[in-house]
Amino acid sequence: MELPLDIRISARQRDGFRSSSAPWILQGMPRKILKMATEDEVPEDIEEYMKIGDQETRRDELARRMGVSGNVIWSELNDLIYDMNERIHPGTLDLSEIRKVKGKIDLQSVVCTILANKKIGMQYFQVLDKVYQPKNTTVTYTKPSSVYLDHNSRLQIVSGTRLLDYLTTPSDLTNVIDNFKLRLHVKDKAMILLSRATVRKGRIDIALNLSPDDDKFLDAIEHISSTDHITYGQDNIIAPFVIESMGIDNGTIVIHIFSDVDGSALEQWMAWCSEMFQRMLYSVISTLRDGSQAYYSPGLGGQFPIQFFRAFKGTVAALNREVNFDRIPDKLAIEELLHAYARSKKDRIMDERLDKVFGNTSNLESFLTHFLIFVQSFIMFNKIATYNERDDRGRYKSTEERLNVSRAVAKIARDGTGLISMKSANDDFASNTLKMLKTASPDSMTAFSTFIETHISDIRAYM
């Protein structure tokens, strides 16, 4: 008799390229480094420990995101772990001690910083001395930033001394600007934030730290977390944004602004949201390939927007100079997009309100494609996350329902082609849905809207 797999996933802070502990970095290191340590220093279970996850794939993915070779990442991790060891257990490399510490760094930004400064011989210890504390899980970018009330009783944040820039590739270091001014709006209140920022094509990244001991810390975090739209620069440009949930309770503030003004910014925002969520889902499924327990960062992943629907509706409303957007249910906000796409002609959006936002049908179509892929990915995630939930009477879901999820996870996790097949299926779902919208009857549109509404409710439950 076939039995469902014993799999569990739950929310808890976890490691990633933007929040990396020494033990997690150690997993991705070249095996040759183990041979450099004496037998007494290598834990008996180190071979099993090093098998956690697909480390080679992880290294290659970091290299891809940074635009460097896998061999470069191998070499850099080697240098980095030795310098981290000096802050954990000075002297000979001690793998058992490294495994105990919980301190975190933005691994991608740290490695990018070193690679960008190779010509001047910068070493990892020079960066680690500023941003790495073995017993503190806070990812550090600045010294504590100043939070105060201006003469209009508005909250203002002035970034503390810069310790680490938020970088995606080594070349980003040449695109860093000082005194970038950002306004975070919550209805009729605006908080001003002044910080160093990294300007990339179509995106601006800001990262800074607040001190939890600051007497205005909670007020600042509440405002930041509730932001409905942002404006930046002297011209108060309205732009889609992501405020990451990862680390915000400890005062780590990471904000991404999508700055293109040709109508593609919101499409790029949705592409980011979909990609960040899929990365989290793939990580969960890959972990279940080697074990029965996996974790995801709270809020649908640490790099997912802290308020997904609020950020979307608030930005659309701001671009149309509207107020009271909170009265619009999330379901209606999405239905508006679906109907606008269904009624669009060639490259023209007939809905004037959405035409101001997207500019043309192509951008709207791309937004909906990314949104639908996100929804399909979420459906799989939600099935896994609720796999072991019990009802009010303490009963599990039916055996058949759990078997279906169990088989799907086993198929996807079996090898790399499973993830590729899932992605292809999600792409097909989005493409077929958009074709259906163009010819859908009123009843079909109503049925699809109900389908979307159900999953919107489930998505909100994780936020």
Task: List the topology elements.
Layout: E1 8-11, E2 20-21, H1 22-27, H2 32-36, H3 46-49, H4 55-66, H5 70-88, H6 95-98, E3 104-105, H7 107-116, H8 124-131, E4 146-149, E5 155-158, E6 176-186, E7 189-200, E8 203-209, H9 217-225, E9 229-232, E10 237-239, E11 241-243, E12 252-258, H10 265-290, E13 293-296, H11 308-319, H12 330-343, H13 352-358, H14 361-385, H15 399-413, H16 416-439, H17 442-461
Parallel strand pairs: 1-13, 5-7
Antiparallel strand pairs: 2-3, 4-5, 6-7, 6-9, 7-8, 8-12, 9-10, 11-12
Helix pairs in contact: 4-5, 5-8, 10-14, 10-15, 12-16, 12-17, 14-16, 14-17
Question: What do these coordinates show?
Answer:
- This protein has 463 residues and is α+β, with helices and mostly antiparallel strands.
- It has three domains: 112 residues, no CATH class; 113 residues, Thrombin, subunit H (Beta Barrel); 195 residues, no CATH class.
- 48% of the residues lie in helices and 14% in strands.
- The chain contains 17 helices and 13 strands.
- Strands 4, 5, 6, 7, 8, 9, 10, 11 and 12 form a nine-stranded mixed beta sheet that branches. Strands 1-13 form a two-stranded parallel sheet.
- Strand 4 and strand 5 form a beta hairpin.
- About 4% of the residues have low confidence.
Proportion of residues in helical segments: 40-55%
How many strands in all? Answer: 13
User: How many domains is the backbone divided into?
Assistant: 3
Mean pLDDT: 88
Amount of beta strand: 5-15%
Low-pLDDT runs: 34-53
Number of helices: 17
The assigned structural class equals alpha+beta
State the shape.
globular
End-to-end separation: 38 Å
- Biggest β-sheet strands, sense, barrel: 9 strands, mixed
